[in-house]
Amino acid sequence: MGLQRKDMLGLQDVSAEEINLILDTAVPMKEILKREIKKVPTLRGKVVATMFYEASTRTRSSFELAAKYMGADTMSLAVATSSVQKGESFRDTAQTIEVMGVDTVILRHSMSGSAHYLASCLKASVINGGDGKHEHPTQALLDMFTIREKLGKIKGLKVVILGDILHSRVARSNIWGLTKLGAEVRVAGPPTLMPNHIEKLGVEVFYDLDEAIRGADVVNVLRLQLERQQKGLLPSIREYHRLYGLNNDRLKLAKEDVLVLHPGPMNRGVEIAPEVADGPHSVINEQVHNGVAVRMSLLYLLMGGGDSDEITD
Ligand code: CP
Known about the structure:
Elements: H1 16-34, E1 47-52, H2 58-69, E2 73-77, H3 90-98, E3 104-109, H4 114-121, E4 125-131, H5 137-151, E5 158-162, H6 169-180, E6 184-188, E7 204-206, H7 209-213, E8 218-221, H8 237-244, H9 248-251, E9 259-261, H10 274-277, H11 284-302
Parallel strand pairs: 1-2, 1-3, 3-4, 5-6, 5-8, 6-7, 8-9
The structure holds phosphoric acid mono(formamide)ester (CP).
């Protein structure tokens, strides 16, 4: 059985069963990545387009590779050199892409809600590759896949999401997903970067990082979104690092086998010390690798996958 939905817009409206289906299906997808010839014909004849109105390295590249490994054709709208620059609207641009025969559009946009809007305009499936401060569902899925693979479960784990919660779509998608799968989620950061009423999402709020980290199984460090900061939210970058930067001394407060995640790109020496980013607890490169498998799984389940024998061909 595939997913009984057209789009993947966020984890808020996705059930625990659907999340587990995506994570379970990513396991055989990861096996495909180990082969010398990383290609299956499952999505042959299908077309996946990326429309990224904001910069990306990981999300766009891994969706393109995931689609190619599954046998689909891909096209990438180069927004900076497209007719968007002549004033073509978001909707007209997307519909123009769709009528060329695109089955699935991966969208990244600075406006929260843009993926929902696009999904309402198109017959094609829409996958949210990050919309403003709202959601980044595939990042949370690959984070959960990595945690589950490394620690064997999600339920009951103490997961700290650390840093710029206010601007983070990664934080929101992780909160929805992890709480649905039964993790105990803590959010930690400065009061100015903590959204009002975040505790209503079922998380515990900490302003003291040492307290938050004590006994943690996982620390997911968020990028300080320097491009989205308004004046006055931070005293200085140095102060932020002193109070909320993850270093080896702080990490000693967590469980012995704690995992350190970061969605990337990292501001080394700001939210994470290089010794932690490159240290034995870091699974940051594994997250990126797993992202390809998770996106293969999602494309497969949304674009008509169903019979698991098909992915072994
Ligand atoms: N984590 C993430 O979304 O990275 P990119 O901005 O490089 O896609």
